[in-house]
Amino acid sequence: MATLFCPSCSNLLVISADTFNKWACNTCPYEFPIKKQMTSRTRLERKQADDVLGGEEMWKHANSTAGEVPFVSAMIKDTRLDLLWHRSQPL
What we know:
Layout: E1 13-17, E2 21-25, E3 31-33, H1 56-59, H2 70-88
Antiparallel strand pairs: 1-2, 2-3
C-alpha cells in the first residue's frame, strides 16, 4: 500500500491522472503509479452529545405563561379571514 506522504519531502501526495493514475507530489518529482484499486475505511465512533440547556430537570422550574400574545393572535386571525375571503371570490 502506498503512503499518503512523499518519502522525499514529506508533503501530502495527490492523485494525478496525466497519462495514468498515480500518487504525485506537488513540490518534488516523486510519483507512485496506482496499478490496482486502493481503498481504506475508518469507522468513527459517535460522541455522546452534551446536554447544553441542562436537560428535562432544568425545564421543570422554568417560567411559563398560559396566555396568548395578542398581536400574534390577531395577525393569525386576520390572515385566516383574508385567506377565506380570497377563496370565496370568483376567479
